[in-house]
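Hi everyone, sorry if this is the wrong subforum. Our group has a chain we'd like a structural model of before ordering constructs, and none of us has done structure prediction before. Sequence below.
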Amino acid sequence: MIIIKSEEEIKRMREAALIAADAMDEALVAVQPGVRTAEIDAIVYHCIVKAGATPSFKGYNGFPGTACISINEEIVHGIPGNRKLKEGDIVSIDLGAYLHGYHSDMARTVGVGEISEQAKKLIEVTKSSFFKGIEQAVAGKRIIDIGRAIENYATKNHTGVIRDFIGHGIGQSLHEEPDIPNYASPRKGPVLRAGMVLAIEPMLSLGSWETKVADNGWTASTKDGSLAAHYENTVVVTADGPCRILTIR
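Answer:
Right subforum, don't worry. Here is the predicted structure as tokens:
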């Protein structure tokens, strides 16, 4: 069942989203060569808790970290630990905050120091594909319209669209209906309605869309070892005009 949020609920979600955005800002500042992913995770944790919220991811289905921190060919669900970032790496940080009974969710990919031109392009195309997708996140359109726009832009820019991990609804639960593929699924999906709150999150690669999951049961990587990037925001479908992005100030 898709849950339509009231203006009061959206206001609460905006508060949670701004805490997530602040935590992301602090995390991205910490992305430097030599920094351990566990150190970035600790920064995210303290930022969220200091603001009076709870990390959405910590303990979710047993996930041990506050943020998912994924490096290079890792797509999503990377577990923070002792791994040090190196010059030339790209790192994806995915995090959320829970406040007043509602979740937020967002992700960014950035370079560590100087990175290759290919990596820069992948990061930019992934971000831009999100904005192409939300152009279709308007009342009266369908879920497939979002995925088609993302896929068309990604394909035009010679990047692969990850199919095994997709966007989702969000609210009192971190993952709600509807599913939001980043490609034109055979199923058109439901019609978008005002008050739907969605986590739209393109994940693209420089190679194949195929994935593999590490022995830890969490970290997902590209099967061919190609670089991957992730960009996500929590957005609200409005009655008229473009959707509202909650996780950007």
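For your construct planning: The first helix runs from residue 7 to 29. The CA atoms of residues 56 and 207 lie 31 Å apart.
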